[in-house]
Design a protein that fits this description.
Blueprint (H helix, E strand, L loop, with lengths): L1 H13 L8 H33 L3 H34 L6 H24 L6 H58 L5 H34 L8 H9 L1 H23 L1
Helix pairs in contact: 1-5, 2-3, 3-4, 3-5, 4-5, 5-6, 5-7, 5-8, 6-7, 6-8
Length: about 270
């Protein structure tokens, strides 16, 4: 019984929310929240039944614990499945990663969703308490070795996409301002050397962001390409690689804002 309890707490500490953004992900997110509530309620019930049984190991209390554990395992699998579905919908909405990169995520995450969906056929209401404990242990191993790396791989790509989307939105503004700046130079209203120096500084920040993107992609791939990679720290390492881009984006935003202000004064 103690082993099951440890598995439950471990799962709660490594799942973290992804927030819905539009109708598709909102539906998936609402399903996730619903399953999360059911999971927590079933966890509370199971722990109460388990504690009672451990204090007084009668046959009737063992049966109560068995029923509670069966319900808990069903709710836990729904919880994991809906979380994976949220990640998939968020992935589909990303514009900062390519279709091939999305496909790499789908190839990994879709079989996991199916596995948790079909798992209910393997966990039966007639299973003994000992069998349910064994199946819970199997699921915990499955989660640690297969599901968790996929979650971190997917979240890493989603985080990367967010940075790329911000960069691309700045590039669109920057390209328009460059065209306008060149027109002002042609009209004799602006000094080309000033703009050239500023363009160089802005391009330098873009280069830094691009370099960070490359390093982040390499870190994401390590989740599956290295036998000795520490899965539990993998997402933290991805975030660490990606974090310099945040400062570069702030500088980029500041530089482009200053460029826009200068151009507006010369119109």
């Amino acid at each position: 019984m103690k082993k099951v309890f440890v598995i439950v707490i471990l799962f709660l500490t490594i799942i973290f929310p992804i927030y819905a953004q539009d109708l598709t992900s909102k539906k998936a997110f609402n399903d996730y929240i619903f399953s999360q509530d059911n999971y927590r309620n079933s966890l509370t019930t199971f722990n109460l039944k388990k504690d009672s049984y451990l204090k007084n190991p009668t046959l009737s209390l063992k049966e109560d614990t068995r029923i509670a554990l069966y319900d808990f395992l069903s709710k836990r699998n729904d919880y994991k499945r809906t979380y994976l579905t949220v990640i998939r919908t968020r992935t589909s909405e990303q514009s900062g990663i390519t279709n091939d990169e999305k496909g790499a995520i789908y190839t990994k995450i879709d079989p996991e969703v199916v596995w948790y969906e079909k798992r209910k056929d393997n966990v039966k209401s007639t299973d003994s308490l000992e069998d349910l404990i064994s199946k819970s242990s199997e699921e915990d191993t499955k989660y640690q070795t297969d599901t968790l790396p996929i979650i971190y791989f997917s979240l890493g790509n989603i985080s990367l996409s967010s940075i790329i989307e911000l960069k691309n939105s700045h590039i669109k503004i920057y390209d328009k301002l460059k065209s306008e700046a060149n027109e002002l130079v042609k009209l004799g209203r602006a000094d080309s050397s000033l703009f050239d120096r500023w363009f160089k500084d802005i391009d330098a920040e873009l280069t830094k962001i691009n370099n960070t993107e490359g390093l982040t992609r390499e870190e994401i791939q390590k989740i599956f390409n290295s036998d000795n990679y520490q899965i539990k720290k993998s997402y933290d390492k991805v975030v660490e690689k990606l974090s310099p881009a945040q400062e570069n984006l702030l500088k980029l935003n500041s530089f482009i804002t200053e460029l826009e202000l200068t151009i507006s004064e010369k119109r």
